Amino acid sequence: MTASRSQPLAMTTPNSILELIDAFRRSKTMFAAVKLGIFDGARPADCKELSRLLDACVALGLLEKRDGEYVNAPEADRYLRSDSPDTLTGYIHYSNDALYPMWAHLEDAVREGTPRWNQTFGTEGGIFSGFFRTEESKREFLKGMHGFGRISSPAVAAAFDLSRFHRLIDLGGASGHLAEAVRERYPQIQAQVFDLPEVARLYPDTIAGDFFTDPLPDADLYSLGRILHDWSDEKIHRLLAKIRAALPAGGGLLIAEKLLRPDYVAAHMQSLNMLIGTEGRERSAAEYEALLRAAGFSKVESRVTGSYLDAMLASK
Questions:
Q1: Residues 165, 303 share a domain
Q2: How many Cβ atoms from other residues are within 10 Å of residue 66's Cβ?
Q3: Residue that wins the pLDDT comparison between 227 and 132
Q4: Exposed/middle/buried for 121, CB within 10 Å: 0-12, 13-18, 19+?
């Protein structure tokens, strides 16, 4: 029997609120499907209600049902299959295993203004003791950053004319997705990553070091991709001043971040995410410009890229 559709009543309905009530269920459905290996073809025999999860993924547009079989929808096949070069499963595992439990304590984070690692996992220390609390969690976090980087880095590399530069050092660049995007667009630029020793061990040709405490490798262009939003204004000022001092005259700093705007929902959600996980926050272009100028940069430009991250270029 097929149910007929009734005529909608002429009344105001709380549709946006109802969608927000429902939103976490959609995310968790995708998280669970990734965790169970659904998009890699797994159909775990010990899951008594697997068909209910699979049908929900069909409704979300993540799976398609053909002749009784469930197959990946094109978008899921590209971004939710773990062996895809564009996979986002690393960040999904990180979201499911770390962020989702910490978001349960958002009220406490708002009240106290501090991250929730200790409250959720009993983890003491800085943010990377949370991100890298186990070898598996470190790899999943870095894999997740790489997936997002492949989406956003080409737009960041294209946001400004970088042809005057010769050597780029991507500070905290992990897998090197931003350095790779710059090299692809500007083959004449030599590009390399400078990152923590535990990260450098995973990626060949990475220079090992801590950009807060170690001397920076020589370059006429440095980049910071999703780095500044991790830190307080005081630490950012210290880092920016150090970068400016290391640059030659005319050198530059390329920044990739979400630039906060009143109606930019994703940036505001990410700012809350930084609250529960770090000592940082998202900032507007004007706030970043003030920090850059306070550190001595003379020219600051910003671009809304239309991609996952926006871009800024500061010159010495």
A1: yes
A2: 8
A3: 227
A4: middle
